[in-house]
Amino acid sequence: MDRTPVVFIHGAWLHTLAWESWVERFTSRGFLAFAPGWPGEQPELRDVRRDSEEFGDFGLDALTDHYARFMRSLDVPPVIIGHSVGGLVAQHLLGAGLGRAAVAIAPAPVDDVPLPATPDRWWTPDGADGDHRLVSLSARGFHQVFANTAGARESDALFDRYVVPAPRRLLADLGCAGTARSSRAVVDVANARRGPLLLVSGQEDLLVPDVVTRAAYLRYGDSTALTDLKQFADRAHSLTIDSGWRFVADYVLGWLHERGIRPRPAQG
What we know:
Blueprint: E1 5-9, H1 20-28, E2 32-34, H2 45-50, H3 60-72, E3 79-83, H4 85-95, E4 101-105, E5 134-135, H5 139-146, H6 152-162, E6 166-167, H7 168-173, E7 197-202, H8 210-219, E8 227-232, H9 245-258
Parallel strand pairs: 1-2, 1-3, 3-4, 4-7, 7-8
Antiparallel strand pairs: 5-6
Helix pairs in contact: 1-9, 5-6
């Protein structure tokens, strides 16, 4: 493999298409970019919305194992970039030695970091098409809790292009609605052998507040492995897809460069 691989992992309520601009940006910089979907996630967003039968019945274990298999299929450990629950998975896989470096953007809480208030009032009661295995986010709820720093027109456009239902079982594994958090939400924060990790937060994020990401950052304080934190002012949970996505992507690219992680691996 003559290019450094980068694997993107999206979060709840977003389709893998949400990484389209990032894939293009990283590819243009010379990286080999991948955005594999979740288990059972169909390539076309409209198909996921219309038929979510295979998409609605998996938890954090299955999601983590799904991406672990993908990482192992690559010739070299990749850079792992995850958003929301994808950020939690990225940290877990980095600690397991399956990534060269990781970036966790507005990541779901790890270990005993307190969970923010669950936004039940923004969910439709039964998920998509009455399927109780799924939890849907309404356009209004998306604007209020996910894209709260965007204007109504931009929020609606983002909703139409990227939003899909989320598996209720996966949300339960994250500790939503008072359920017990899965053991896969635990990360070996003391691991000194892992690669560098960047945690990113939006200071106006209502779904995974900045305080949650900062608390996760402090959990890594006893490790000698490199851990950095970047806080973006005036940004919400939609910071990877809204009109300011490029500022975040370019910061990540710069951080990788500073850590010696270049588009093409050094030849031995």
